[in-house]
Amino acid sequence: MDRHEIYRDITVLSLEQALALPYGTYRLVQEGMRVIRIEPPRNGDPNRYVGDEVLGERGMNCYFLPINAGKEAITLNLKEEDGKSILYDLIRTLQVDIFASNQIPRSYARLGIGYETLRGVKDDIIWVGVTGYGPDIFEPAYDPIIQAECGLTEVNGERERSPMNIGVPVVDLGAGEHVYGQIMKALLERKLTGEGKRIDISLFESGLSWLGTHLPLSMSFGVEISRRGNTHQFFAPVCLYETKDGWVYIAIGTDRQWESMVHLPGYEHLDKEDYRTNLGRSADSEYIIQEIQRVVREKTSEELVGQMRSAGIIAGKTRTLREVSEDPLVQDKKLTSRDMKTDSEIVLGSPPLITPYLESVGRRLSFPPRLGEHNEAIYGGELGMSRKRIAGLREKGMV
Q1: Domain total of the chain
Q2: Range of the structural domain that residue 78 is part of
Q3: pLDDT (tens digit, 9 = 90+) per residue, 349-388?
């Protein structure tokens, strides 16, 4: 078997909405797994209606598209017994390997999707539940709320101004990465033991994990860490500087880099004995940053980055998203998807690396599915339901 085919027989059934879990299953798509979204009939995932109607049709708005390519979509009413029965038929007939849900835990029993229930249907199933605070807490949650509650908001923003959320939904995306990682681990464990397992991922614990140095330093040594704008609590000088035509981030990470900097034209006056160690520079970092800012304001961003890099100093220009999109590194690795209905092509969410599967399909995935797009193919073609029965289920609001 070729490397790009390793995961082709893995089937994921995901009762998903919003961002965290759909992002996690999108990462599984990138490995070549089959991912089938389950959504309630009529409206489906609320995220289908977020952003502009770029295709001119309801339920395919722009915010929904980037992380749902490569998936199939069916509708199913799990509030009714017939819906639960169909779900169990799907798990058995499709030999579902992974069932995932980001429903509130109190819904598990009502929808018939709890781990013990589904393990009774297929004993080696890998079950994933994504929640706000864990399986025993029934509170719903959103990314910005968790950012605030787990401390990420407190450490982000300018020193003398209000706390600020991070500009990307890091809690949702991080939880999605944790879903991906734990599923890959569970697949290995099942290969070795023959047993499935239950995986619980909470947004709160996921967000907490990104405080990998901040929280331990606070809890172990009482270090007070709060927002510092573009500076760093432990390294100096580290800051974002305004140039003639933009902004450049310069990070001095070692004493040797500092020595190189103060030998560059314009910075010689900062070559002081007290500044030769990071500890000494940190004690007077505000003054040092002000002095560097005074010098670099006379340079263009390109000139400054070139000067710093030539001296072995880490520096980078702050770019707009449009500028980022034009970077050859982005262009050479981007994923795309084309809609057979409208002939529209979209760029998809970038993976952390190009997998063998993505290479095998030319970094192109099938278009994000419309609501219930695969009902006929899956219910009729794979479960063997007649058109008459599917029509009847549709009339009753079951699919």
Answers
A1: 2
A2: 3-210+329-395
A3: 889 999 999 999 999 999 999 999 999 999 999 999 999 9
